[in-house]
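User: structure tokens for this one?
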Amino acid sequence: MNTLEIKNLSISFPDDDPYDGVDTFDTVLNHMNLVIESGEVVGLVGESGSGKSMTALAVMGLLKPSAIVESGTIEFEGTRGVDMTMIFQEPMTSLNPLMKIGRQAKEAMVIHKDVLEKKWGIELTHEEMEARVENALLQVGLDNPKELVRMYPHELSGGMRQRVMIAMAMLVEPKLLIADEPTTALDAVVQSEILELLKELNRKTGVSILFISHDLSVIRRICNRVLVMYKGNVVEEGECKEVFEHPQHDYTKTLVSDIPLLTTTPGKEVLLEAEHLNVYYEAAKSGLFKKASKKHVVKDASFTLHKGEILGIVGESGSGKSTLVKAIVGMNSDYDGVLRLASDCNPQMVFQDPYSSLNPAHTIGWTLREALRAKRRGAQKTAVAAYAVANTVSDEAAIDQILERVGLEAEMKNRYPRDLSGGQRQRVCIAEALLLNAGLLILDEPVSALDVTVASQILRLILSIHEESGISMIFISHNIHMVRRMCHSVLVLKDGCILEQGQAAVLENPKNEYTKKLVANSL
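Assistant:
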């Protein structure tokens, strides 16, 4: 018996350029066909713009009014919001920050009260709703539901918020659950826990799941079948194992191609050294007249980074990864112990979200010129003449050269961040760091916000820069497989402590139980 059946669905939107004088339409779904049987978990995989989320929005009836359904049908026996529910990528934006968890969870039952009373054959009193909310929170692994219902979303961790979203979606006992990138914003351990939870709910309740992701490893772990989408078309479909191990379409082959492999050997000269390093930051004030408290984040960390080395740092959210590198780059000076940097270290950071790293009010060219101005000011302050030599090439020529180096055309300098794709923005951020003469490039989850194909391109760019220049790097990621292939050595952090360190091969045979758990969750 089929839970959902999509037949020959085509959807387009009017061209968003009102000044070109031509009425054209962009097709976002092209003759889409999809069947989900009762109790089945089906994956949709592909890059941004491939039509994955558009399929989900069409099924949920959430298309924009401007959408044009050119052909096709969606067959589902049930009521949206009751028999069909949806969870999204970022729970913090899906939850009302001004409303307590309990009240938000009850909303679906209040809105669909008549339908649910008929479905369940009971009267949905206030007490009955509260009991069902608390039970749903327990079912998704959240303890102390009576306390939880009185809390606000900001008081919960990312994993807890996603569990709340799943509880809210399952509260009405749906036949179909649509999960749109539900684990992308989570670290490896929490991601694994959420995937196991969804699998368990599927086994216990028989709910069918449409799981949307650009992460092939996630699709492999949870789905029975997978559809590969590219530019609005389903280009390949079948059992997960068969599709990923024996891909037929060129795009699928690109998706499953491996992460690039590091081939260089680091030098022996030390670039950075930490000895018994403790890093702190001030926690927020807890009351009107109370002082901010100091939080001890990184604890007694000792490690060495050599010139030409790529050091991977792994650990779950809150483990201290970002706090550690902020101390290295000079963004946090509240530390004790020894942090020794070579004179040519000059650490520069590339962040997870390139859009937030770029000034939306200025062009790319302005941003890169500002980097050159900053370098000039730094050279003057330290009486270093290196920039004078570099400045024999004009600033515009230097910008053109660095854009070319990161795979962008010189014309990009006239564009604003909003005019660039995510991958192009990240290339600009890397270009900016290189313009500042970085001796150490710190990459904080540099591809986690990017599609799998774009991420692969950025990783290859990073390795090519390393191989050509010998620049040292710190690579922060929760992707163990990526760290194994991209790094010479690794630090495993938990609760601010280094639990394990050594060559990246340590991840093949970890000694620490936590590291074993991280590795197991990455498979």
